[in-house]
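Researcher: Predict the fold of Rieske (2Fe-2S) protein.
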Amino acid sequence: MSELLHVPQHKLPAPGSRSIVREAGLCLALFHVDGKLYAIDDSCPHGGGSLVMGMLEGLQVRCAARPMD
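Model: Structure tokens for Rieske (2Fe-2S) protein follow.
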């Protein structure tokens, strides 16, 4: 499900970086990749770990707590 959420300018990540935003009862991981912003729930569905600290490969993020394959 998508939803429009206002994120203050100072909370937006710089190009190539990431940030975490807590707004409207949500905790979102924001990624600035190739000039576009992407937002996902910061909680990994497998282990509940934070995704903002995970490994980013293209447009896929791997939970930092999940071992590499």
